[in-house]
TrEMBL record, chain B:
SUPFAM superfamilies: P-loop containing nucleoside triphosphate hydrolases (SSF52540). It holds the Pfam family ABC_tran. It comes from Microtetraspora fusca. Belongs to the ABC transporter superfamily. Residues 1-221 form the ABC transporter domain. This is ABC transporter ATP-binding protein.
Amino acid sequence: MRHLLRTPAGIAGTLLVALMVILAIAGPLIWGAEAERIDSAAILQGASAAHPLGTDNLGRDILARVLVGGRLSLGLALIATLIGAVAGVLLGALPSVLPRRAARLVTGTVNALVAFPGLLLAMFTAVIAGLGARGAVLGIGAALAPGFARLTQTLAASVAGADYVSVARMLGVSRWRVLTRHVLPNIAEPLILNLTQALGGALIALAGMSFLGLGVQPPSFDWGRLLFDGFGRIYATPAVALGPAAAIALAGIGFNLLGDVLARAASRRATPPGEAAGRPVPEVGELGEPDQDAVLEVRDLTVAFPGGVTPVRGLSLTVAPGEIVGLVGESGSGKSLTASAIGGLVPYPGEVSARRLRLCGADLDELPEQERRKLLGTSLAMVFQDPMASLNPALRIGGQLAEVATVHQGASRTEAFARAVDRLEHVRIPEPAARARQHPHELSGGMRQRAVIAMGLMGEPRLIIADEPTTALDVTVQREILRLLREVTDETGAATLFISHDIAVIGELCHRVVVMYAGRVVEELPVEGLASDAAHPYTRALVASLPDMETDRSRPLASIPGRQPSPAEVPDGCAFADRCELASAKCAELPPLIPYRAGHRVACWEAK
Amino acid sequence: MIIKNLTVRFGSFTAVDDVTLEIPDGAIVGLVGESGSGKSTLARAVSGLVPYTGAVEGVDPGRVQMVFQDPLTSLDPRMTVGASVAEGLRLPRAARQAEVERLLTLVSLPVSLAGRYPRELSGGQRQRVAIARALGARPALLIADEITSALDVSVQGAVLNLIRSLREEIGLSMLFISHNLAVVRYVSDVVAVMHRGRLVEAGPAEEVVKAPADAYTRSLLDAVPRLARS
């Protein structure tokens, strides 16, 4: 309810609809007698103090009639909408329970009806059903039904494709039960939202029907009828027509605004409510002098979202030239957001803060916007899990790569294209010149990922951030991409930050491993020590729970009980304590990340 | 049961090409292959979700159940865990409650989870709910299609342990599909390898892993990332 009153549109919509509902309930009770009182002394008057909107041909007060007519207008609109919605939902849902051929017939009929102009359908039905309110309501209902049917069909089709419907079918659940238990409850929300908007439409359409003389007949009256009666006098006494017209417009606007706001609130429900966290950066320890040799130096990086959601909590990381650092963690550990924060790609409304964020010896926070962009554009290469997300499907591969050189390095188009072909060859794409003229969809997944890496090599990258670059690929292709990444790192002397959930892949590729848990680094160690020297219980459990080709099949696999806390509920102390066998009272206090051995740091009170 | 000369065609494309594979009673047959190898299509054909030519003998089509990759999409978000698990039960209403509790216990979940919704559970717990629901239909064959691929490593172990204990405790026959050779090797008695719609190799798990006969199996084995353990 709160989000309704947050925007001007929401406030206006809610107020207007509330006003209309009150009017429909109270109007006839208060002004009912006044609206029917015939006064032969005041026939066809214009606006005056006694009759602000004038009087009609029997001397009745038009303002009173507008206030009373609201009940009929709104009531009929409501009935028409319900008729349309019920008929539409039934029509739309039928195909999912009928046998295939009958289902196709229903779908075809709905498609034909959708193509038919709504107003014609309404008038046609109204003429058949007979003049008057009943005909108009049935007509508008018939006009609304195809839209509802189409919406229901589309929504139902998306739910019908869901795995849980396949499961229900395999379990032998009947089509009818699938419809009532799985499909309808999961599409109810958008249907109800559509209902609110349709109500506004029905109100206006009914007014239109009455105005055309097809709707409410005297002595009954609704807003449309009042408009019809007053329209002939609009040049002489405009108030008599403008009153009912304004009522129709306000009601229509009110319902549409409310429907819009409800729909928007529903689609945005994913983001938790609340104010931006804006946590201060923790002042932990000495910051010290910046490391001049490091390609990337991050100190106390925090990424926070509104509502107290803090996926990255004071992360520190240093990457040296030529080094491949693996950042490993489970889903929700904050590893990908760390990459986004370094690349300046954290989506709104995320807030990034760090005590130090240096790339290639330059402080990213202190650089002017333009220079920062140029530095990120040429020195940083990012490779993501889905290469299609990094490539524009409408553009040719070569053109996309060349863009990097024309934008950041001021190369001419021919030079840039030649360099693009050269880079494609460098990542061992066969026939690079021909591939450069192809679109992304013409390449296989592995080739696309190579093209993205080639795009990163268009500049002179000092740092390559690869975020799960092989997760969507087959193992044989994964192996080639890992080899390519290693070669590229060796040749260019660039550093690589390789992010993955797969500790085996990290173990194969990287020199150094950084383990993340619930937004913090819990351990940092040379890769040689990963299998046997890990000191943090979480790292040890991760390694133990991973089956490999030598795992003893007669013994159960290790697993960690419980789950990683979500970014909104990370405790102040050690986040792993809940799942840890070694946990003690001391773990309520956050263990610092401290040196354990040479090149090995760990954040655990129990690591000795 | 045995799958005989099973072929699935989508238009002119042959997704599964003349596959013959035996699943001995009470055994876990692991099926590995890369994306597009036809392993999931084979599973869907055996479950009766896609039309095929050939034969599936020794099992009633109604007694095949399948567990999907992502438990978040295979559980109805608006149904409680208990209601989801009860869905496949063909029991009088009074007996359902007890059966739901038995099934949840069988997959090592606390009975108290029955009133919760899928979004309140961890990935591993959700997957165990999906397994419990499939077991409720008393399947003669359970097909597990990439059931650990969407899970984190730390909970994957618990699900794999459950699969093995189900075989030992209730003698469940299973077709276990995964792209992860190490996972397949760990849970399966027999390993079958698919490549471009064809079955290229099938044999006892240790044999296939130690002495692969097919060149493609060898390249798959070579590509498995390994953690150097001492």
